[in-house]
Design brief:
The protein is of the alpha+beta class and 234 residues long. The chain is built from 5 helices and 8 strands, in the order ααββαααββββββ. The protein is 28% helix and 24% strand.
């Protein structure tokens, strides 16, 4: 192969790579597509694994509305470094944000061992961690804020970068919210996102997969109040 041919091929290869980079930048709306970490180092696989261990479709597992304010909404006692972080519901029932806290802590134990460490959080601080996760102070980003502000996860601000196993808090037109494990987007014929598919605990079908449509597609989910975080492994 002549030197001139090698030079032309090198230029062509560089030009093609540059075009791909620009295309990725455009698709990613401001940064290379799939620029955010996903896979090793992230908790997604462990969260999905823990979720798969729960029986599905039983609406009887939901905490009754008259006990929501007195229950942590978890089916097991949740411990962190020897201190109980959340007390098991008296009947082992759950609600969405409690279930997400439960599978997060169990996934961390799977990934990091029984004595896993959540950043700089001590056993004395796990109670505040749980309160922030549950949104006790009224912060609508709940678990997303809890993980991202403590360096335990990365907030996904571009919905196109959401991946299976991310954690999501969204809100509806009627004022209700939902904490869920993300499974994917449902799209219309033009490719626009029209619904979110997830796993959580809800009145429609108990602990199970579910799909809800966005307000601009005939549903109730507010498009501008979908908060997403990708958790790091401990």
């Amino acid at each position: 192969m002549s030197n001139s041919t090698k030079t032309r091929l090198a230029i062509a290869f560089f030009s093609f790579g540059f075009v791909l980079m620009i295309a990725a930048f455009i698709v990613g709306k401001g940064r290379p597509y799939e620029a955010l970490p996903y896979g090793p180092g992230m908790l997604n696989h462990f969260l999905l694994s823990v979720a798969s261990e729960y029986p599905t479709g039983d609406r009887g597992v939901l905490v009754p509305s008259d006990r929501v304010n007195t229950s942590y909404g978890v089916s097991d006692d949740i411990y962190y470094q020897g201190r109980r972080a959340a007390k098991r519901d008296p009947e082992g029932k759950v609600y969405c944000v409690g279930l997400m806290f439960e599978i997060y802590m169990k996934a961390c134990a799977k990934a990091g061992g029984r004595d896993f460490q959540l950043g700089a959080i001590t056993e004395n601080e796990i109670g505040q961690f749980r309160k922030d996760w549950y949104g006790v102070d009224g912060n609508r980003r709940t678990l997303v804020r809890t993980l991202s502000e403590r360096g335990l996860g990365i907030e996904i601000t571009n919905p196109e970068e959401a991946r299976e196993g991310d954690l999501v808090q969204f809100w509806r037109k009627n004022g209700s919210g939902h904490s869920v494990l993300f499974l994917g987007w449902e799209r219309d014929s033009t490719g626009d996102r029209r619904a979110i598919s997830y796993w959580s605990a809800q009145s429609a079908n108990g602990v199970s997969e579910n799909t809800e449509y966005f307000a601009n597609h005939g549903g109730d989910v507010l498009n501008d109040e979908i908060y997403i975080v990708r958790a790091y492994k401990p």
